[in-house]
Each structure stands twice: as structure tokens, then as C-alpha cells.
Amino acid sequence: FERRLILWNPKGRQDAPDQADLAWMNLLWQKREQRPRPATDHKILLGWNALMARGMALWALSTETNDKLLEQLNNCMEALWQHHAQNEGTQWWRLGKDHGRAIPAFLEDVAAMGLAMTATAQALNKPLWWQRAQILAQSIIDTFSMPEGPLLSDLSEPDPITGSRPLETGDNVIPSANSMAARFFLELGHACGQTQWIERAEAMAQTMHERVKTDPFWHSGWVLLFEHLARPLPVLKYATQARAKAMEIWREAPRSPLLVPENSIEPDQMMLCIGTQCLMAETEKARILEALSE
Q1: Which of 97, 140, 271, 283 has the highest Cβ tally under 10 A?
Q2: What is the pLDDT along the chain (294 residues), one digit of tens a residue?
């Protein structure tokens, strides 16, 4: 490679290559085939695949029924669970189990996986993912908490060189791991009615308030979180037969609610909850859309 075996014509050409050109191209190709090939990266990172899975889940929610997409999403999430989770989801690996290197997951990995779980639970209509999300949330607290405050360390163990536990709060190639974790806690808390997760998200956001206010450009994940804290996430609970209507509301509402199945209401009813207030069970889509527009 090294720019010595690449056929380059600085002036370009409009006509097709002649036989002489083809001969040179074949010769160059034969020589290149004798050189070492570039290394191929085969590792499977939990965090980056989880971000992709969340995107797939949100795409599935925003479109009409797409069985192939839902199948791919289910296969992807089950593969991440099988290859990266240990001890029923209480411990996580950054790389797949079959990679050969047992590297504990970073905060960015499990935070992204948490967001993938909350979106997948809604897209696939599988309460199992809400249950797994609760296990993961507790694992994050147990593994990454720091005594200095509510923010979380990036690593599960101290850095082997410095002995410290790094804490990053700004965006990089992906959003800040702490902002993703806080967003995960917030979605989980509202969907499952567990206030401890909402309170943790609020405490993390409060710690970051002045930093984000001073420099919002590097804290887009936190800015989005503040928006959701200012206006509590709506939760739309639905009975089995009302699933299709709930999906339509998710797509049409100016603020898409979290979708959570509910067994305590009539088969064709839905119930919208915003913060601590819940509307009476409704069958009319228009009433719920009106409430979400306020």
C-alpha cells in the first residue's frame, strides 16, 4: 500500500481503459495481493452495538409493523445479553465472551445498553426487558458509584496506572456516559413507577447544572436530560387489545410517551400518566393526544 502500488492518473480520463491499462492494473493487483493485508477488527463492543439497537427500536416504534426489523432487533438484543451479560445481568463484559479478553464493561457500555433495553421493551412489547433493565440499573449503581457524589465513574475498577477512577461528563464520540446513565434511570423510573431512579437522575443532573449552563456545546446529552426533567416523561399504559392505538399515539404525539403494558385496566383501554398524575382510563385516542399536546 504506502502509495507505491496505486495506479493514479492526475488528469483523469473519460474513455474506457485500453488493453495496456488493463495489463498494468492486473500486474498491480497481483503485486498488491502479495503484500500483508490490513488487520480486520472483529471485536464486538457492547456500547456501540447497544446504541445501534436503541436506534433500531426507535425506528421500529416510529414505523408501521415491520416483522423483519422486529426480528432483527430481538436477535441483536438477545445476542448482546448472551455474549456480554454475566450472572443474570449483574455483571457485564465490554467485549463478547468469545473474544478471549475478559474486559469489564465501561459505564458507556452499560448506560447505552440500558437505553437499548427501555426502547426494546416498548418496541417488542416484552416486559422481560423492563425486568432486565431494573437488574442492569442496580448493577450500574453497585459497580460505578463513587463516594464523592451521585455521578458515576467510567471504570468499574481504579485505573491501573494512576490508581484513580476517571469520571467523564462531557460528550465525545458518543454522548457522555453519565448523561446516558441518568437518561436510562429517568426512563426506567417513570416506566416502572420506581422513584429512586428518578431521584438519582435528578441528583446527577443537579450536580452538572452549572457546567452545562456554562458550556452546553459539550453536554448535549445533559441538555436533553434537563428538558425531560423540566417536563416529566409521559407514560402511556395500555391493555393488550389497545397496543395498536398506543403505537399510533406514540407516532402522532408531539412528545412520544413511554409505552408500558398494564393488566389492571379494561382490554381496550389506555391510561396516560404524567409525573404523579394519571388520567382516567380512556379508549379514545384523541383525548390522549390532546393531553399530550398541553
Answers
A1: 140
A2: 445 556 566 666 565 666 777 787 787 778 888 888 877 777 888 999 999 999 999 999 998 878 999 999 999 999 999 999 999 999 999 987 666 677 899 999 999 999 999 999 999 999 999 999 999 999 999 999 998 899 999 998 887 788 788 888 888 877 889 999 999 999 999 999 999 999 999 999 999 999 888 888 889 899 989 988 988 899 999 998 999 999 999 999 998 999 999 988 888 899 999 887 888 787 888 889 998 887
Nearest residue to 155 via CA among 113, 101, 186, 110:
110
238 close to 248: Cβ distance less than 8 angstroms:
no
Select from 126, 138, 167, 163 the least CA-distant residue to 261: 126
Strand partners, 270: 238, 282
Distance CA(101)–CA(138), nearest Å, equals 25
Find all residues with CB under 8 Å of 124, minimum gap 6, and list them.
57, 70, 73, 74
